[in-house]
Amino acid sequence: METTVSDRGMVTIPAELRRRLDIEPGDKLRWETDEEGTLSVEVLKQRYGAFDDFEPIPMGGGGSESHDIAGHEDDPALSETS
Fold first, then answer.
1. Is residue 39 part of a domain?
2. Is residue 74 part of a domain?
3. Could you give the C-alpha distances from 65 to 4, 17, 38, 60, 82, in angstroms and in order?
4. What is the DSSP string of the chain?
5. What domain range includes position 34?
6. Tally of structural domains, the chain
7. How many other CB atoms are found less than 10 A from the CB of residue 18?
8. What is the pLDDT of residues 27-66, one digit of tens each?
9. What sequence ranges are listed for the domain SpoVT-AbrB (predicted)?
10. Residue 67: CB partners within 8 Å, gap ≥ 6?
11. pLDDT by residue (tens digit) across 55-66?
């Protein structure tokens, strides 16, 4: 595969490589060369939030009970009615 460098120094990553390497908009590329002038490129995946790598965990019960922010069950007798 070949690409051409534009007059502004930009190149297009061929679609086949973008698909194979799962390169998406917002990802970064880290460019490095060695002493012989060999160029290597590393794909740095964009992370959208601090907790994107965490899997959600169930908070118990599949029922309709509600919990306050500390995880305690709400007592319907204590809730205000309007």
1. yes
2. no
3. 61, 49, 61, 10, 20
4. ------TTS--PPPHHHHHHTT--TT-EEEEEE-TT--EEEEEE----STTTTSPP---S--SS--B-TTSPBP-GGGS---
5. 24-48
6. 1
7. 15
8. 999 999 999 999 999 999 886 666 666 777 777 655 555 5
9. 3-49
10. 59, 73, 74
11. 777 776 555 555
One-letter amino acid at 74 equals D
CA distances from 1 to 23, 27, 28, 52 (A): 17, 21, 21, 34
Residue with tokens 């070949």: 2
Alpha carbon of residue 76 to chain centroid: 39
Residues 6+ apart with CB under 8 A from 66: 73, 74
Q: Determine, yes or no, domain membership for 40.
A: yes
